[in-house]
Design a protein that fits this description.
- The protein has eight helices and no strands.
- The radius of gyration is 20 Å and the shape is globular.
- The protein starts with a helix and ends with a helix.
Length: 164
C-alpha cells in the first residue's frame, strides 16, 4: 500500500512542479492534504509495526544484537516529528470537510484529473450511498473496480455520518 500511495504522490508531485513553473498553485493544498495524511498514517504504522516485531521476537527483540532496539528508537520519532499525528490527521480531515461542504452547496469537487480521481465520489454521495453491489461471483467481488466502489461507499458513509 505504501508503495502504491508513494508512486501516486510522486506522480502528483511531478505534475505540481510543472504547474508551479507557470505560477499555478492549484495542487498545493491537495498535495499538503495527501502528504500530511501519509505522514500521520505511515509514521504511526511504521512505529507500531517495529514495536510489534520487537515484542514478537521475545527477549531477542530487546537485545542489541538484533538491532531492533536501535530501529525502534529511530522509528519512535515518526509519530511526533514535525507535528503530532493527530495534528496531521486534522489537517488531512480539514480538506475533506471543506470538499463535503462545497458539494452540499452544489459545487463540484472533482474539477480536474487528480481531484476527480481522488475525491470524485464526494460529488455523488447520495447516489453512491444508495447503490447496491453488482458482484455476482467471487471473481467480480474481488475485482479492483468493485473494491474501489466499496471503498468509496465506505468513505462516503463516514463523511455523511461526520457531516451530520
Amino acid at each position: 500500500m505504501m508503495k502504491i500511495v508513494g508512486w501516486y504522490t510522486f506522480e502528483m508531485m511531478n505534475e505540481m512542479k510543472a504547474q508551479l513553473r507557470s505560477s499555478n498553485f492549484q495542487l498545493l493544498d491537495l498535495m499538503h492534504h495527501f502528504t500530511s495524511g501519509q505522514k500521520a498514517f505511515f509514521g504511526l504504522m511504521v512505529h507500531q509495526g517495529v514495536d510489534e516485531l520487537r515484542m514478537c521476537c521475545g527477549g531477542a527483540g530487546y537485545s542489541q544484537w538484533s538491532l531492533l532496539p536501535e530501529i525502534f528508537s529511530c522509528s519512535s520519532v515518526f509519530p511526533t516529528v514535525e507535528g503530532d499525528t493527530v495534528v496531521m490527521a486534522q489537517q488531512n480531515a480539514k480538506l475533506l470537510f471543506h470538499m463535503v461542504a462545497q458539494a452540499a452547496k452544489g459545487k463540484k469537487v472533482g474539477v480536474d484529473k487528480i481531484t476527480t480521481t481522488s475525491f470524485g465520489y464526494i460529488d455523488h454521495l447520495t447516489e453512491l450511498l444508495s447503490s447496491k453491489s453488482d458482484a455476482t461471483c467471487p471473481v467480480t467481488f474481488a475485482s479492483l473496480d468493485h473494491l474501489e466502489k466499496a471503498l468509496a461507499v465506505r468513505a462516503g458513509q463516514w463523511l455523511s455520518h461526520l457531516g451530520q
